Amino acid sequence: MPDPISSTARTRAALLAPAMAILIFAAAGPLVIVLIYSFLTPGDYGGVVWDFSTDAWFGVLAERDFFTEELSWADAHLTVFWRSIKLSLLTALLSFIFGFPTAYFIATRPRRSRDIWMLLVMIPFWTNLLIRTFAIMELIRNEGTINTVLIAMGLVTQPVQMLYTEFSLLLGMTYVYLPLMILPVYASMERFDFKLVEAGYDLYATRWQVLRRVILPIVKPGIVAGSILVFVPCLGAYVTPRVLGGGKQLMLGNLIELQFGQLRNWPLGAALSLTLLVIVMVALIFYVRTVGTEERSHG
Q1: Phi first, then psi: what are they for 41, rounded to 5°?
Q2: In principle, which of 131, 212, 222, 250 could form an S-S bond with 184, CB 3.0–4.6 Å?
Q3: Phi, psi angles (nearest 5°) of residue 123
Q4: Contact, 31 vs 23, CB < 8 A?
Q5: Cα–chain-centroid distance for residue 297?
Q6: Beta 48-49 vs 41-42: how paired, if at all?
Q7: Using one digit for the tens of pLDDT, what is the confidence trace for 5-44?
């Protein structure tokens, strides 16, 4: 008589086989190729030469002078790393500053009208990212809407240079990724029992105390999730920095594209890609540990 347990296990394995094959060949496979490329030698006209080398990983943080062979920090790469992390953190912070009140407002509306407000939040996702980025560009360029209004009101005599600066990148990425903060914060706040807020007021707590000691601790998992959802894509952003930065304000995504494209240094581009992946994994581990600690403390 066949063992029903082993038969069930074989059935599950057969059902999981297509999904596992997709994960191996479509997800893990490209990563393995990138990892292998990072330990090879760049070709003269792009591509790689199959000679083992660690120069690409060495070049992520350091560089060797062409004439004197003297070692020094790769200042250009470190600047791009710092700019990417800084702008990603600031974007997450601004997204929280604007997204938290928005989520709170929607969560406190009558239930039948919440879907309409969420629809308004989601509408930008229906538009192509490039079009949304060009819309921001139209607002802040020297002949754009904001400068035209400022000059017409007599507040300035010359256009304010906003485009091709870190400010333009921060503004563009905050606009693009703001819904990714609103959605998880709203999901946490929708389950929030607002009777706790009333209880806080009954105990003579101020609005700031209620916010800090009642609301924020309970919706913290949603805030952390929103911060990760904003921080991670910001690190690898390419379109927004390319359009609003004008090639002057490179971020990690632009630096990686530059290595694979114009500079034709595929191993260094692969090493930079894996470095970006490590940063993202660290952020995700932080999220998992933070949310897991919160769930255990409330369990």
Answers
A1: -105, 135
A2: 222
A3: -55, -45
A4: no
A5: 28
A6: antiparallel
A7: 566 777 888 888 888 888 788 878 888 999 999 999 998 8
